[in-house]
Design goal:
single chain; 107 residues; alpha/beta; Rossmann fold; globular
Amino acid sequence: MIKEKKLQDLEKEYNLDLEKAAATIKKQKPKKVLLQFPDGFKPYATEIQKKLEKILGKSSPEFYLWFDSCFGACDIPLETKNLEIDLIIQFGHSNWDYSEKKDIKVL
């Protein structure tokens, strides 16, 4: 029997920092936010989105989920410029310095 994992299971293993993500969204006030995940987190994508929407309440932006490949913190989906994404929140294991990317805000 396969045990269905819940978001709480993922949060026990990883620090998702959803409060930090929500604080950044509140501060920057983006209209469109893209959530990008490594493959292991993708089954939780909609639950993570719903939790962020719950934390943000009425100030919640329009969320987009990126389900294409993600090979780590250096893998920014530049195609999102066409969608007029204001902020990308990338979940993963490594921090990356995005200070050179002036046109796309990344957390």
